[in-house]
Amino acid sequence: MLRAHLIDDVRRAEAAAMAHLPDGALMQRAAAGLAAAVLDVLGRAYGSRVLLLVGPGDNGGDALWAGARLAGRGVAVEALLLADRVHEAGLAALHAAGGRSTRDLDDLHDAPDLLVDGIVGIGGRPGLRPEAVAALEAYADVPVVAVDVPSGVDVDTGRLEGPHVRAALTVTFGTHKVAHLVDPASTASGALHLVDLDLDLIGGPAVEALQPDDVRGLLPRPGLDAQKYTRGVVGVRAGSSTYPGAALLAVSGANTGLVGMVRYVGPAHVADTVRTAHPEVVGAGRVQAWVVGPGGGDDAATMLAEARRDGVPVVVDADALGHLDEAAADWVLTPHAGELAAMLGAEREAVEAAPLEHARDAARRWGCTVLLKGHHTLVAAPDGRVRVTTTGVPWLATAGAGDVLAGLVGALLASGLEPHDAASVGSWLHGAAATQAAAGGPLTASRVAVQIPQVVRETLAGLG
Ligand SMILES: NC(=O)C1=CN([C@@H]2O[C@H](COP(=O)(O)OP(=O)(O)OC[C@H]3O[C@@H](n4cnc5c(N)ncnc54)[C@H](O)[C@@H]3O)[C@@H](O)[C@H]2O)[C@@H](O)CC1
Ligand SMILES: [K+]
User: ipTM higher than 0.90?
Assistant: First the structure.
């Protein structure tokens, strides 16, 4: 599991570690990891030029000490000092290793190959000062390696307010931070590299992200004595005369072999289309979970009321979300930002600016799991736990992808997974299937569903 912690928890763990380590030991570990990561990006030391952007705190200290190490390896290192006072020992080390420093942007002539953003770390407030903005603008085409976090983002919430760094790579220390994983700040973090500081983090993670091993451990798999009914039966109530395709897509997400049987309940001519495409799908009967809403149109309220009567877990998606008055603890709601905004009486822009906060609010308000779709989909539990999905590609933002996801999450619920696991594993598989199916190019929702068994196969085999 990849975990992200809040600043306070990181500070507590760092203080505990520093109490029994020599002065500066943690910073040296951080700087060594940072210098190694920068060298990896540069590919060679001699002939490479690096510019450090150095702020007032220990984040700048990390950058300076790493700069000293890089200069020692033959990299031409310059530091632009963006504060009256910077980390003294770090600056002295940089000078001793042959690096240069200046406070004036005009002193710098040759464009560097790489910027190292040591402006602020976990002590930073959102936004950047004009001097930092000017330096970033002067080298707008140069890739940035961020130290700990891209400066200017709101580290604990993932909000973006005011100017901030856009990193190609963020080298972070001890544990991940919320802004690395949660939108919109995750889009400013680039690739992530964690330098282990051997910290003892006592507080639980603020958010976590499933990794292939976690998914492998959670995936349902049939025992030797499996029967179709014991593997779980999922029912889909979706589609209408206006949107028959949504039924097909939701069923294709449900019918990937992860449960013993899929039922479809809907208008007769839609059911015919569904069964033509998926001959193994049967009609009404007992299920262990319902998927309700995709393409439901005017029928969505009735679909939801009928599904509720069975007392089994329900995935509430799309049109059905507008008819939700109350939910049970084992339900999963799967809105996108616009739908969640309507559910909470908020503006869509507010949800997009702070998806973590809104997903948590919704999970508390309805007392059930809420899966908020986005670049990094969030799965929030009513007790505050949040998982974030880091699989997927932007091509996945395509019509019908949500219908497939709803069907898949329903199948996982029917197979017996807890709602938090069903939603987060479903979202992980959906993203991984999209990445595979897209293979660097465009994608349709139907292709995502077709790819799911292959992703499950590779994950079970430990190839993920
Ligand atoms: N605490 C530790 O043990 C370790 C800390 N490390 C580094 O130390 C960092 C935290 O250092 P600090 O606590 O000194 O804090 P920062 O280096 O994040 O900077 C805080 C300083 O920046 C100023 N500031 C705040 N927001 C600003 C903004 N938007 N623009 C300009 N200046 C701003 C503040 O007034 C304060 O002086 C971590 O992110 C990490 O990089 C690492 O060396 C590993 C060990
Ligand atoms: K930084």
Answer: yes
Q: What is the structure's pLDDT at 464?
A: 64
- Judged by its nearest atom, the ligand closest to the C-alpha of residue 198 is 1
Give the closest ligand to the alpha carbon of residue 57.
1
Contacts for 107 with CB less than 8 Å, ≥ 6 apart: none
Task: Give the model confidence (pLDDT) of 144-164 as tens digits.
Answer: 999 999 999 999 999 999 999
Specify whether domain 2-208 bears CATH 3.40.50.10260: yes
Cα(125) to centroid of ligand 1, in Å?
9
162-202 residue pLDDT tens: 999 999 999 999 999 999 999 999 999 999 999 999 999 98
Q: Per DSSP, what are the bridge partners of residue 3? A: 208
The position carrying tokens 């970033």 is: 136
- Residue ID of nearest Cα to ligand 1 atom 23: 124
Q: Is the peptide bond before 184 cis (omega within 30 degrees of 0)?
A: yes
Q: Residue 442, class by beta-carbon neighbours within 10 Å (0-12 exposed, 13-18 middle, 19+ buried)?
A: exposed
Ligand 1: residues whose CB is within 6 Å? Answer: 14, 18, 26-27, 30, 55-60, 62, 120-125, 127-129, 147-148, 173
- Cα 131 to averaged position of ligand 1 atoms, centre (Å): 17
**3-state SS track over the chain:** CEEEECHHHHHHHHHHHHHCCCCCHHHHHHHHHHHHHHHHHHCCCCCCEEEEEECCCHHHHHHHHHHHHHHHCCCEEEEEECCCCCCHHHHHHHHHCCCEEECCHHHCCCCCCEEEEECCCCCCCCCCCHHHHHHHHHCCCCCEEEECCCCCECCCCCCECCCCCCCCEEEEECCEEHHHHCCCCHHHHCEEEEECCCCCCCCCCCEEECCHHHHHHHCCCCCCCCCCCCCCEEEEECCCCCCHHHHHHHHHHHCCCCCCEEEEECCHHHHHHHHHHCCCCECCCCCCEEEECCCCHHHHHHHHHHHHHCCCCEEECHHHHHHCCCCCCCCEECCCHHHHHHHHCCCHHHHHHCHHHHHHHHHHHHCCEEEECCCCCEEECCCCCEEECCCCCHHHCCCCHHHHHHHHHHHHHHCCCCHHHHHHHHHHHHHHHHHHHHCCCCCCHHHHHHHHHHHHHHHHCCCC
pLDDT digits (tens, 9 = 90+) for 377-403: 999 999 999 999 999 999 999 999 999
The full set of domain ranges for the chain reads 2-208, 212-460
For 212-460, CATH gives 3.40.1190.20
Is the pTM value of this prediction over 0.80? Answer: yes
